[in-house]
Write a structure and sequence with these properties.
- The complex is a heterodimer.
- By secondary structure, chain A is of the alpha/beta class.
- Chain A folds into two domains: 216 residues, P-loop containing nucleotide triphosphate hydrolases (Rossmann fold, 3-Layer(aba) Sandwich); 78 residues, Alpha-Beta Plaits (2-Layer Sandwich), CATH 3.30.70.100.
- In chain A, 33% of the residues lie in helices and 27% in strands.
- In chain A, the strands form three sheets. In chain A, strands 6-7-8-3-9-10 form a six-stranded mixed sheet, with helices on both faces. In chain A, strands 2-1-4-5 form a four-stranded antiparallel sheet, covered by helices on one side.
- In chain A, helix 3 runs parallel beside helix 5 and helix 4 packs antiparallel against helix 5.
- The termini of chain A are far apart.
- Chain B is of the alpha/beta class.
- Chain B is 66% helix and 6% strand.
- Chain B has 14 helices and four strands.
- Chain B has a four-stranded mixed sheet.
- The chains are: A alpha/beta, B alpha/beta.
- At the A-B interface, helix 2 and helix 3 of A face helix 1 and helix 8 of B.
Chain lengths: 306, 371
């Protein structure tokens, strides 16, 4: 039995179509990532799956419970961490955790070993009000509150947004440990670099899934090859590279440009040569394997074709 | 049950950790009662009377004395020329002026009876002017009676109506506003605070977490109502104590009946609070709806300020759907008239009906999902 299975889910807000015809299947005990930019429909999909919202059409089950008819059964077995920090700011760390434990009919003591690893990090501040915690600590507290009742499926909506790079890394380490205890994790993120840390993922854009599979599958399905090009004046270089025949697209990626090219039509040397003709003689170009972000760019159709 | 108690505990923590809420909830009733009691009193006290006329005239002096000895009136001074009265009013040195005609003393005892006296009030404040003028007129009328008695040697048959205000002989305005303020405050605390506290959870997103938990929404709502029920009980008690010991408003009827009426009214208000929280998406909207949609109609249509009987018929119908109106009527009947259950049976059943309908509607309207 799949931990999560949804079929043809659609949802509109008046005339804005937030989610269109989405089908997903998540196996038990895997980390499934929903990757996409802000406004792609991630939160809407979360709310539908966590029974907070009704889809206009489509159906689905969480651990065999129907998301519409058996919403009450689902609420007992899932943990949910909304995108916005949603704990009681005026209650202390311990009071928050206690409240959510009681809400799910359990106590901190009974499930201490389940949250120990994360809770021990914020326990020194247990009497501090949640509103006065730092971003990383808030996130850990929210995770504790979502985990305290031993859910079978954990829904994390953009848990790493607004968290520093080190804490983000820690967070993913924690997620792997939680997964090893058998919990299925459905996580969304706008950060492409976190995609590779998921077991499987789906790329979402404008309310539709544009690609899914393991990170390896997605990368291997990439139809072109990529050159990382560096040069002295980056912006004119970007414009020049886009004009070169045989390059499919060119985007700025931090300190270099990723040039996607069709190997049937051109090659590294040809591109460098064309660039030199345009006056960019001292460019360096390195053949790299595509990342998830390159795949997302290609799949989302954000191409400047020539 | 444990979940419910934990939620109630949490609600109390929210209230007591927010100093503003505590201030609104605990201090506001006290301040309102004291304000209405002392500052916004409609009684007339220490009315300054300016006398204009021949001060050597014995009759004028007698009347002046009489005015000065009245507990509500005092003499502010004397004028010789009636033309100065306007100046005196402008400088706010007097509230009312009494002008005696020429030869007032002689005319007042002569059989032709042509003694003229004019009472001039400051019409810029019509309510006060009407009351002060009638006070002064009353004093002069008494003097007139005394003169007639002394002339005839015995009391001549004449018509002199004796006015008595039952239940409130001294015409204290506190008898009117204590029930009014009680209705207003209970309404405000229960509806506004409940609405705001539910909408706040919507705003902060914690409602999402509550909804995703297996706790039934009914319990979530009830746990939100509990603290405000307790708080309104405290407010009810403090208003009663203040009005009884500071304002000296009697509690003639049964205290238990009064508390029962308050309980029914509080439940009605709590239900309205939930309904407001369902339709508003932000705390500001909830406050606005409560302020404009509840407090104002309650003030205007519940009979605190304007008597419902003098409203156009359509507005009277409208006033009938305001729960506070029925509660205030009941409080007046129980507290001041000393009425029993039979006296308030009609109001009580109307209010109970409202409570049941509103509570059912509000629990039904509370969704198990987000919009």
């Amino acid at each position: 039995m799949a931990a999560i299975e949804i079929r043809n889910i659609s949802k509109s807000y008046r005339d804005i179509r937030a989610v269109q015809d989405i089908s997903l299947k998540v196996d038990e005990g895997e980390i499934f990532g929903l990757i996409g930019p802000d406004g792609a429909g991630k939160t809407t999909l979360f709310r539908i799956m966590t029974t907070l919202m009704l889809a206009d059409s489509g159906s689905g089950e969480i651990c065999g419970h129907d998301i519409v008819r058996d919403y009450y059964g689902i609420r007992k077995i899932i943990g949910y961490m909304p995108g916005k920090f949603s704990l009681y700011q005026d209650l202390s760390v311990r009071e928050n955790l206690e409240f959510f434990a009681t809400l799910f009919g359990t106590t901190i003591k009974d499930n201490y070993d389940n949250i120990k690893e994360i809770y021990s990090q914020i326990e020194p501040f247990r009497d501090r009000r949640a509103g006065k915690l730092s971003g990383g600590m808030k996130q850990k507290l929210a995770l504790c509150c979502a985990l305290v009742h031993r859910p079978s499926v954990l829904f994390l909506d953009e848990p790493t947004t607004g968290v520093d790079a080190v804490s983000r890394k820690d967070f993913w380490t924690m997620l792997r440990r939680i997964r090893s205890s058998g919990v299925t994790i459905f996580v969304s993120t706008p950060y492409m670099d976190e995609a590779a840390l998921c077991d499987r993922l789906a790329l979402i854009q404008n309310g539709g899934i544009i690609g899914s599979g393991t990170p390896e599958e997605i990368v291997s399905a990439y139809p072109y090859r990529i050159l990382a090009v560096k040069g002295p004046s980056m912006y004119p270089l970007l414009k020049a590279l886009r004009k070169i025949d045989g390059t499919v697209s060119c985007f700025s990626f931090g300190d270099c440009h990723h040039v996607a090219y069709d190997p049937a039509r051109t090659c590294r040397e040809a591109i460098l040569g064309k660039a030199a003709e345009e006056g960019f003689a001292d460019c360096s170009a390195e053949e790299i394997s595509p990342g998830i972000e390159d795949c997302f760019m290609q799949l989302s159709g954000k191409w400047i074709l020539n | 049950m444990k979940e419910f108690l934990a939620s109630v505990k949490k609600e109390f923590r929210h209230i007591f950790r927010d100093r503003r809420t505590v201030l609104i909830v605990m201090i506001m009733p006290v301040i309102q009662i004291i304000l209405f009691g002392f500052a916004v009193s409609t009684e007339v006290n220490r009315v300054r009377v300016m006398v204009c006329g021949d001060m050597s005239d014995i009759s004028v002096m007698r009347i002046t004395d009489r005015i000065d000895n009245n507990r509500y009136l005092e003499i502010a001074g004397t004028l010789s020329n009636p033309g100065e009265i306007e100046d005196v009013f402008r400088r706010n040195e007097a509230d009312v002026a009494v002008c005696f005609g020429m030869d007032f003393g002689r005319e007042s005892v002569s059989p032709s009876g042509n003694a003229r006296v004019r009472i001039i009030g400051d019409g810029s404040d019509p309510n006060t002017a009407r009351m002060t003028v009638s006070y002064v007129a009353g004093v002069i009328q008494q003097e007139q009676q005394d003169i007639s008695t002394s002339l005839a040697g015995e009391k001549r048959p004449s018509m002199a109506p004796v006015v008595q205000l039952m239940y409130n002989p001294a015409m204290k305005s506190s008898y009117n506003f204590v029930p009014g303020v009680m209705g207003l405050i209970l309404m405000l605390i229960c509806s506004m605070m409940t609405a705001v506290s539910i909408v706040r959870e919507k705003e902060t997103g914690t409602l999402e977490l509550l909804l995703v938990s297996p706790v039934k929404p009914v319990w979530v709502i009830l746990s939100k109502l509990m603290p405000y029920l307790v708080l309104s009980a405290v407010n009810f008690a403090s208003i009663l104590l203040l009005s009884h010991y500071v304002m000296e408003v009697p509690v003639k009827g049964s205290l238990i009946l009064l508390s029962a009426a308050a309980l029914v009214f509080v439940i009605t208000s709590l239900a309205i609070g939930i309904l407001v929280s369902v339709i508003s998406s932000s705390q500001r909207t909830a406050m606005l709806i409560c302020g404009m949609g509840l407090t104002m109609p309650t003030m205007i249509f519940s009979g605190i300020i304007f008597p419902c009987e003098s409203m156009p018929e359509v507005l009277q119908w409208f006033s009938d759907i305001i729960p506070a109106k029925w509660f205030i009527i009941m409080v007046k009947k129980i507290m001041i008239q000393g009425g029993g259950l039979a006296a308030v049976a009609r109001e009580m059943s109307i209010l109970t009906g409202m409570a049941v309908v509103l509570l059912a509607a509000s629990i039904r309207s509370f969704r198990t999902r987000l919009q």
